[in-house]
Design goal:
Keywords: Signal. This protein is mainly β and about 120 residues long. The protein has one domain: Immunoglobulin-like (Sandwich). It is built from 1 helix and 9 strands; from the N terminus they run αβββββββββ. A 9-stranded antiparallel sheet has the order 1-2-3-4-7-6-5-8-9, with no helix packed on it. The protein is globular and about 35 Å long.
């Protein structure tokens, strides 16, 4: 019984839970800010939340998303939009398995978050 319990505990700790956000995307926490990633065929959108659960002010914030897929890396410029979004245009839809890294400077600190589609 103990080996089964130990294995279950290991798998629970080794596999991170992916939370679904209110916009249907994956949520990770970066520097105390929950960030939800949503991709459409034409754009990347990151919804940034303050540590108190309210929308973070992103107007005037800029950043970059680095998209790795098919052995290539594309840099997508991001711009802040109301109420709490960072948005960037895609040249083509993201394929399954694409990795996306968000990097933005917001209110005096750097946010970095990693996502996989």
């Amino acid at each position: 019984m103990r080996p089964i319990l130990a294995t279950a505990l290991f798998l629970t700790l080794a596999v991170p839970a992916l939370a679904a956000g209110p916009n249907g995307g994956v949520v990770v926490v970066a520097d105390g800010h929950p960030i939800e990633f949503v991709a459409s065929d034409a754009a990347l959108t990151f919804f940034v939340t303050d540590d108190d659960g309210g929308p973070a002010r992103t107007v005037g914030v800029t950043g970059k998303a680095f998209v790795q897929a098919g052995g290539r890396t594309e840099t997508v410029a991001l711009a802040g939009a109301e109420p709490n979004r960072l948005v960037g245009a895609l040249k083509a839809p993201l394929p399954a398995g694409a990795k996306v890294v968000l990097s933005a400077r917001m209110h005096g600190h750097t946010l970095q978050a990693r996502f996989e589609r």
